[in-house]
Amino acid sequence: MKSIRLFLLVVTTVYACITSCIAQDTYQWPEDTAVKNKLDTWRDQKFGLIIHFGLYAQAGVVESWNLCSEDWIDRDSSIAYEEYKKWYWGLEKEFNPIHFDPDQWAEAANQAGMRYVIFTTKHHDGFNMFDTKQTDFKITNGPFKNNSKGDIAKYVFEAFRKKGFMIGAYFSKPDWHSENYWWPRYATADRNNNYDIRKFPWRWNAFKSFTYRQVEELMHNYGSIDILWLDGGWVRPTETVTNEVKAWGMRIPEWSQDIDVPAIATMARQAQPGLLIVDRTVHGPYENYQTPEQSIPKEQLNYPWESCMTLANNWGYVPNDTYKTAGKVIHRLIEVTAKGGNLLLGVGPKPDGTLTNEAVSRMKQVGQWLNKNGEAIYNTTITKNYNDGNTWFTQSKNGKQLYAIRCIGEHELLADTISWKNNPPAKGTKMKCLQTGEYVRWKQEGNETIVFIGAALPGNLPAVAFEFTATN
Description:
By secondary structure, the chain is α/β, with parallel strands linked by helices. It has two domains: about 375 residues, Glycosidases (TIM Barrel); about 90 residues, Sandwich (Immunoglobulin-like), CATH 2.60.40. Helices cover about 30% and strands about 20% of the residues. The chain has eleven helices and 16 strands. The strands form two sheets. Strands 8, 9, 10, 11, 12, 13, 14, 15 and 16 form a nine-stranded antiparallel beta sheet that branches. The longest helix is centred in the middle third of the chain and has 21 residues.
């Protein structure tokens, strides 16, 4: 397990470096007015939840990656690889989340101050958390099938809609359980499909049809969907393999793993007008926002993006996992917002369908801070001078209000004053502390703004935000 985490750390660090160097011309702004409007709405939300839930929760492993035969995978060496796959996929007969309560999930996310949700309808292992008619490998075909909420995706989406969340469906383009992706005739060397598509086009066409029909079900049978979040960026046309992709170090087949995303997108948007499509890492018209994983770009970006990060160490539930403090999450949310992005926080429910107490506690603490200081986060936009040390800056969309947000270290004792350079308040403006709602004294000395914070702030505050009128 430690080697997996080390590998993931290396991969995400490399990905962060690559992402921060991506030129803006790799992002293609949408032309559809409905998509542009939806994108603007999404950018205002700032904070979302991604839920990984499937057979990997029952197994207690790093999502479904143990199925993949690659050097970095550290599975139980006492079990032969083929036997491991049979065991893992056999968990469909055991996975029975009898305490599944989507309203509890939605309430925890709402208390956290989150505004949108991405739910894993299918991860790379091919196990479906919705009632697909294309395969029997699904939650509604195992011990949970007779539960009144057996079609888990349906009830997750409904619960979050009641709270006013934007709804996103995560869908894995690769499907390791499908015989048209991993053909049993051959060994499964790595995450890619394991046969030459050029020699067996009929098999790949069958997989393309299967994928299309599954997305069609999600777009037509599960109510209003705002985001189609397509994962598995190695499933892509050959011509879209860039130096960025090559830098990941994975094997790239000679043949194209093209599943015809344009056809999928056309169908999906006919059913869901304005749908945002996130074909992750495949730059172009179907990557409506970019998604650096477990990292934050080094510099401010002026096109849509989202840092997806885990609350614990893993995307799905792993026993005895270590959770980030609420302060660390808040600091990352502040930095991401000041750099022009959204933060998507990953939480994995336990096999019984409940969130861990640690996850709920951390989420509630984040929400308590946002309840007082959210004005500096939600519906804001970037500023030219967005950072000075531990102080980050955002502004209202009309540009009239500027927000300075000072991150406070876990063991830091806050002095009577804090200061920053650049972004001076307009002369005579009032400075308000969002945490208390009270106005505070300030003065300007050259290029430095000094704020007298007073003694009314609670202890152990992860950050303090101030609102003031910007200079012209």
